[in-house]
Specification:
Oligomer: heterotrimer
Strand content of chain A: under 5%
Largest sheet of chain A: none
CATH superfamily of the largest domain in chain C: Cupredoxins -  blue copper proteins
Number of helices of chain C: 7
CATH class of the largest domain in chain C: Mainly Beta
Bound molecules: protoporphyrin IX containing FE, copper (II) ion
Order of helices and strands of chain A: HHHH
Shape of chain A: elongated
Largest sheet of chain C: 5 strands, mixed
Distance between the termini of chain C: 35 Å
Structural class of chain C: alpha+beta
Chains: A mainly alpha (135), B mainly alpha (852), C alpha+beta (331)
Number of domains of chain C: 2
Number of domains of chain A: 1
Shape of chain C: elongated
Number of strands of chain C: 12
Strand order of the largest sheet of chain C: 3-2-1-5-8
Largest interface: B-C, 88 and 98 residues
Radius of gyration of chain A: 20 Å
Chain lengths: 135, 852, 331
């Protein structure tokens, strides 16, 4: 097989980096989808459902997407954690003008955002524990 | 390693290259040339300047002027409320005053100030010569001035809006006179200017950083600008969509918010607060960004937790879009829905807290020097934490049910606005003032005004928490005695005058003549970021040469940086062709990719703004013909301006920019700043469109009969046919681009001509499919929203046609060639978004209503 | 906007001041008299203590590191601060608060179960009130709400033209009133007494003058009161009052206001059948003395700017007095 030219390789690396720039918003995006799903489905069910019914189905739904979202965020967080490589080199401050630091910085930010998004998703699910009517 | 090293020559520069001395003779000559190119026009021509340092200054001062006006209104409010049953202001005037106070503070001061300050200092921080689209900043500024004067001026004629700064229908729609129209049109106009500024700032941060300033080295301010710019793009369009619906109801009686004809006032509340809550963070984050610049300087060390702060900025940006219903906790929505928003509102506290703790941590590990900016930061922290803590309380729905719309809210919102905006901004002004003037503001006056502001503020607003808890609603022009509110209100009024005195003292310090005072050093606080290399007012070029950056705090870490910049050792130290230029770099690693020509002084921006103003202002008085004429002229001005100054074909393909690097002068597609500008603008545009579509589905969810049974629908056949033809126009545009790239110019022109024909035909078919039926937009909200979508689509297709025509003309007159095809690339991007709009419109107008 | 000579205004406003003075706490969140308000007050007190402590803590740390001890501290301490103060602590505390408020919310939205339910409609700028009794009979009233103590009364809310908000701080949180939409609330007052409510959503020129009183009564008294209210208006006995009734009918007051038992059956304005027995006039802004009635009728537009009732300034003083007398007598 032909060895990839340096140009191709650079292009690929560059693509990866752009991905990791996007990746910092993945976890918050999961939060957004979870939030919107909870809100929209509730709004529709409460508007269209005959008054007085309980919301068992809706609460199961919320549990389901909450778990899915949490798994998703955890996966993104894990990936970023690996990319950050804190256990390998212990670098917490990525302030050098190198590709490596830029690479790890994006991962670090993405990891931290995963933590906040994780908490956010948990919070948004709390109301469904306590409320079971459309009142 | 760069992708294009081979093509562009040497990058990055080696230490040896940087060490090489610069020829003295050349230094002088190039300096002279550069100075000539960047000269600020003198005399009356001064007002044609477009340079960021001038426009930014005007912008800031205008915003401050509007703030002072709004502050005077607040004082009048306070006088009226000083004692019960007062008759200093009549009810009607009071209502105008509080509406105008809120609207002006938010729309004419707090949001524009972010843009103003960023336009002023961002290029400096990024070592750029100017913003990427200087004329756009100038245009935005003039729009702001015209709109602001118009809106605020209405107070003088007793014609101001009087329904509160969130303009809830039906009240605001029923409101007599032109007040509501002034609000809607005047502020829409300014919102559009804000979006333009946001686009420019985002492009500035992404594409105009100095070589080597990788994304992990950006000043935190730039991160905030990026986040806030993004937020503006998604937050303002829903309000613009809302404004459109609102004005359609006011002018043409399309019943979007009229419950008798299927409308719903709640839709406005949703659209307003989807904008309104993020707006609060749009105001808060940039001010925090200023703190993020001041704190490291004061602590004399790099910020602790850079990544944490980036996380919190981005996180806050996202979460802030899930909070809007906390302004609607008392509207009777299902408790479960409220719960989600309550939860998100609590969650947003976490990134905000991280932000503040990162600052405290920096101060902890640093060696703090106290100065006036730091004093203001300390005041900001004290006030903001209080506002934040009441925010935590308010986010809990049951507590909110009690104090919503009372003076408790008035207290909370001023605590967050003063702590999260006024005080940090004042800190920023004290801090950055020397960058632009080479003078420092008086520390003595600064301390005085700080203490006046701080005590005045607390005396005014701390008691208001209690006033609210004792039951006083906000927006009341009078109150009865005996409810325990009298003394609290009197204290607040006294406090407000102390506060006002603080502002006056500050204004005096800012504006008093200082020519007799000695100039300060260039970097009096010993800060670490690039804006401190500025040499204004002597030199208007921004930076002598654009440096290669290797640190977050280059002035601290990079030896001999300033000398080399001043010697013209770095990039673009010369202006050999007599053109204004700045560098475009890559998004992640800031590798230089283009030497971009930016525009110089021009009147066309001012003229375009005047006509645009006319197009918005005449309809307020229900005068439509001049409005249309103005709109046409505004369009013509903008086309003229684009034609004459954007992406001109350069006299040479590439040029040496210094340090052995040679860069292309022309770029098109994703390489160019313009393409990013279009992309980002269209993101905002698509958001507004989605908000309209949201309106459709909102009616469907909340109404049992939407669309009403037996109502007429658009003609499906014509709709599908029209949609298909419009998509054909899209395909033809893309085909034109590809043919042009391949050198088949004639084929490209033909495709553009066919594209224009297809656009007209397709649009005619779609219009026919709606208008040939008996759908009457005044009869019910269903035909009304269909018509609104139709209007949106028609306007966009019209723009699409103009663009096709523009490129066709460009091709015919040699402005657009296979090599120089930026315009065609950009309009294709527009047409991609238009394609999306077409598909969604056909679905929503033709298919869904039958199917629901 | 109409501008009025300010001397009349002064005079009139003096009248507004008198009746309700000396009743601090009438409209206070901090002096609850109902179940929901009490729960929220407890929540608030906890929040207040927490907020004060946290405020002192954060600003204390700040003061310490900038003023008391500006020497550099260890980086580790700084990082602990970010992680502990920025993530761990708030996550736990906010989580607990969230759970607490959610459970409160669920109980506060419980339906009412008292035999009588009330519906209130927001008008510019007054309150249309209607009681529905167990037997289905309806009873019109205005600008005052009576409730049985210890029972949970369902209140349905709507509005005529613009948005208002129904709020009695001593009893419960507020709820908005929309045209074309019905919202609800349940009130469970615990102690008898009179509490003040006020419109909390800006609703136009005289939004500030849209208040009302809630009178909480023993359930038996309440039933009796309802029976009285169901009766048509009292026949006037005195000559002055009789004349007042004539004027009332002659001047066309009945086109907008109902007085059951007379030809006056208008519904644009409030039902006046028992207006004399209410605690306030003009939606919580005047006392119900004959004098106040007179003033209200004569100067309506300056007492309540932009009001939808004309001022009867042209009527002679004696005629106005007769009207005032008649209306006061409608108890
Ligand atoms: C001189 C300083 C200020 C004073 C004395 C003051 C006073 C007040 C008062 C008394 C109100 C309540 C009016 C009412 O409910 O009837 C109010 C409302 C408001 N203020 Fe201020 N204010 C000041 C500065 C600011 C600033 C700097 C901002 C924003 C950056 C601001 C934003 C607002 C907003 C948005 C409202 C709500 C208006 C509405 O209800 O429609 N204020 N202010
Ligand atoms: Cu908010
Ligand atoms: Cu009101």
């Amino acid at each position: 097989m032909k060895k990839p030219s340096t140009h191709d390789q650079e292009e690929r690396e560059f693509g990866e980096e752009v991905d990791s720039l996007w990746r910092i918003v993945f976890s918050p995006l999961v939060w957004v989808f979870h939030f919107l799903a909870c809100y929209i489905v509730t709004a529709i069910i409460c508007a269209k459902m005959p008054a007085g019914d309980t919301l068992a189905g809706l609460r199961w739904f919320i549990l389901g997407i909450t778990l899915t979202s949490l798994v998703g965020i955890a996966a993104i967080g894990w990936r970023s954690w690996k990319q950050w490589g804190f256990v390998d080199d212990g670098v917490k401050v990525q302030d050098l003008p190198t590709e490596e630091h830029r690479h790890e910085f994006l991962a670090h930010a993405s990891f931290l955002l995963s933590i906040v998004s994780f908490i956010g998703v948990c919070y948004v699910a709390v109301p469904a524990i306590f409320l079971d009517s459309c009142r | 390693m760069s992708l294009r090293d081979d093509a562009n020559g040497c990058y990055p520069p080696t230490e040896a290259m940087l060490d090489e001395p610069v020829d003295e003779q050349w230094q002088d000559n190039s300096k002279r040339r550069l100075r000539d190119v960047w000269k600020t026009p003198a005399g009356w021509r001064y007002w044609s300047a477009v340079n960021n340092s001038e426009v930014g200054k005007w912008y800031c001062l205008t915003a401050f002027f509007f703030m002072m006006c709004a502050g005077v209104l607040a004082l009048a409010i306070r006088v009226q409320l000083a004692v019960p049953e007062n008759d200093f202001l009549s009810a009607g005037r009071f209502n105008q005053f509080f509406t105008m106070h809120g609207s002006a503070m938010m729309f004419l001061f707090a949001v524009p100030l972010f843009e103003a300050i960023s336009i002023l200092i961002l290029p400096g921080m990024l070592g750029a010569r100017d913003m990427p689209f200087p004329r756009l900043s100038a245009f935005g500024f003039w729009c702001f001035v015209i709109g602001g004067v118009f809106v605020l001026g209405s107070v003088l004629f007793d014609a101001a809006p009087d329904s509160g700064w969130f303009m809830y229908p039906p009240l605001a729609i029923e409101s007599e006179g032109i007040g509501s129209d002034i609000w809607l049109l005047g502020l829409s106009f300014i919102e559009i200017a804000s979006i333009a500024a946001a686009v420019e700032l985002i492009v500035g941060v992404l594409k105009c950083r100095p070589p080597g300033m990788r994304i992990n080295l950006m000043p935190l301010y730039a991160w905030y600008v990026l986040v806030v710019g993004g937020m503006i793009l998604f937050a303002f369009p829903p309000l613009i969509a809302g404004d459109l619906l609102f004005e359609l109801q006011r002018s043409f009686d399309w019943p979007f918010f009229d419950p008798d004809r299927g409308g719903d006032p709640m839709l406005w509340q949703h659209l307003f607060w989807i904008f309104g809550h993020p707006e609060v963070y749009i105001i808060f984050l940039p001010s925090i960004a200023i703190a993020a610049m001041v704190v490291p300087t004061v602590a004399r060390r790099p910020i602790v937790g850079y990544s944490w702060i980036v996380l919190s900025a981005v996180g806050t940006g996202f979460l802030s879009f899930g909070l809007w219903v906390h302004h609607m906790f008392t509207t009777g929505l299902p408790a479960l829905s409220l719960g989600f928003f309550s939860a998100a509102s609590e969650a947003v506290v976490i990134p905000t807290g991280i932000q503040l703790f990162a600052f405290v941590a920096t101060l902890m590990v640093g060696r703090v020097t106290l100065n006036v900016p730091m004093l203001f930061i300390a005041g900001a922290l004290a006030i903001f934490t209080a506002g934040g803590l009441t925010g935590v309380m308010l986010a809990l729905a049951p507590f909110n049910w009690q104090v919503h719309d009372t003076y408790f809210i008035v207290a909370h919102l001023h605590y967050t606005l003063f702590g999260g905006m006024i005080f940090p901004v004042l800190a920023g002004i004290y801090y950055f003032y020397p960058v632009f003037t080479k003078k420092v503001l008086s520390p003595r006056l600064g301390k005085w005004s700080f203490w006046l502001l701080f005590t005045g503020f607390n005396i005014t607003f701390l008691p208001m928490h209690l006033t609210g808890l004792l039951g006083m609603p906000r927006r009341v022009y009078t109150y009865q005695t005996g409810l325990g509110w009298d003394w609290l209100n009197l204290i607040s009024t006294v406090g407000s005058f102390i506060l006002a005195a603080g502002f006056l003292l500050f204004a005096w310090d800012l504006l008093r003549p200082k020519s007799r005072e000695p100039d300060t050093a260039r970097n009096p606080w010993n800060a670490g970021t690039l804006e401190w290399t500025h040499d204004v007012p002597e030199e208007a070029w921004g930076i002598r040469s654009i440096p290669y950056i290797r640190s977050r705090y280059p002035l601290w870490d990079q030896e001999k940086l300033v000398e080399r910049i001043d010697a013209g050792r770095f990039y673009l130290a010369d202006a050999a062709e007599g053109k204004r230029e700045t560098l475009v770099t890559s998004v992640l690693d800031a590798k230089p990719i283009q030497c971009m020509r930016v525009t110089g002084p021009a009147w066309i921006t001012l003229i375009a703004a005047l006509f645009t103003g006319g197009a918005f202002i005449f309809p307020t008085f229900h005068i439509y013909t001049p409005a249309v004429i103005c709109a046409v002229f505004a369009g013509a001005c903008i086309l003229y301006w684009l034609w004459t100054s954007t992406a001109p074909i350069p006299e040479q393909d590439r040029k040496p920019v210094g340090l052995g690097l040679s860069l292309p002068i022309y770029a098109s597609g994703p390489e160019s700043a313009g393409w990013w500008g279009v992309w980002i603008t269209m993101l905002g545009d698509a958001t507004a469109f989605i908000s309209l579509v949201f309106g459709f589905f909102f009616y469907w969810t909340t109404k049992t009969d939407f669309p009403p049974v037996g109502s007429e629908h658009a003609n499906l056949l014509f709709m599908l046919l029209g949609g298909a033809v419009l998509l054909g126009a899209w395909a033809l545009t893309l085909y034109a681009r590809d043919s042009n790239t391949k050198g088949h110019v004639a084929r490209a022109r033909k495709a553009l001509v066919l594209g224009i024909i297809a656009s007209f035909t397709g649009m005619a078919l779609v219009i026919w499919s709606v208008r040939s039926t008996g759908m009457d937009p005044q009869a019910h909200v269903y035909p009304a929203i269909i018509h609104a979508l139709l209007l949106w689509l028609t306007a966009h297709v019209a723009v699409g046609v103009i663009m096709q025509g523009y490129c066709l003309a460009g091709s015919l007159f040699g402005k657009l060639t296979p090599r120089y095809d930026a315009d065609l690339q950009n309009i294709c991007l527009f047409w991609h978004f238009l394609g999306f709009t077409i598909v969604v419109c056909v679905l929503v107008m033709g298919i869904f209503p039958r199917w629901l | 906007m109409t501008t009025k000579p300010s001397s009349t205004h002064k005079l009139l406003t003096a009248a507004l001041v008198l009746p309700l003075s000396g009743c601090d706490g009438l409209q206070s969140v901090l002096q609850p008299a109902g179940k929901e308000a009490a729960e929220i007050a407890t929540l608030f007190h906890v929040l207040l203590v927490g907020a004060v402590v946290l405020w002192i803590l954060v600003n204390g740390i700040f003061f310490y590191v900038t003023r008391l001890n500006p020497r550099p501290l260890s980086r580790r301490a700084a990082e602990t601060l970010i992680i502990g103060g920025g993530i761990l602590f708030p996550t736990i505390v906010l989580g607990i608060l969230l759970a607490w408020s959610m459970s409160l919310m669920s109980s506060q939205r419980e339906l009412g179960n008292a035999p009588v339910s009330v519906s209130v409609t927001g008008e510019q700028w007054w309150w249309r009130v209607q009681y529905r009794r167990e037997d289905g009979s309806l009873l019109a009233s205005a600008n005052e709400l009576r409730l049985p103590a210890g029972e949970r009364t369902e209140v349905t809310l709507t509005s005529n033209k613009v948005i208002h908000s129904f709020w009695v701080p001593a009893l419960a949180g507020k709820m908005d009133m929309f045209p074309g939409r019905v919202t609800r609330l349940a009130l469970q007052p615990e102690t008898t007494g009179t509490y003040r409510g006020q419109c909390a959503e800006f609703c136009g020129t005289s939004h500030a003058l849209m208040a009302f009183q809630v009178v909480v009564m023993e359930p038996n008294d309440f039933e009796r009161w309802l029976d009285d209210q169901a009766a048509p208006a009292k026949e006037p006995e005195e000559a002055l009052a009789l004349e007042g009734r004539q004027v009332f009918l002659r001047e066309g007051c009945g086109a907008c206001n109902t007085v059951r038992g007379t030809p006056a059956a208008g519904t644009t304005g409030p039902d006046l059948t028992h207006v004399g027995g209410r605690t306030t006039l003009g939606a919580g802004i005047l006392p119900t003395t004959p004098d106040a009635f007179t003033r209200w009728i004569q100067h309506t537009e300056s007492i309540k700017p932009d009001v939808y009732m004309p001022s009867y300034e042209h009527l002679e003083q004696s005629v106005l007095e007769a009207l005032g007398h008649y209306l006061k007598g409608l108890s």
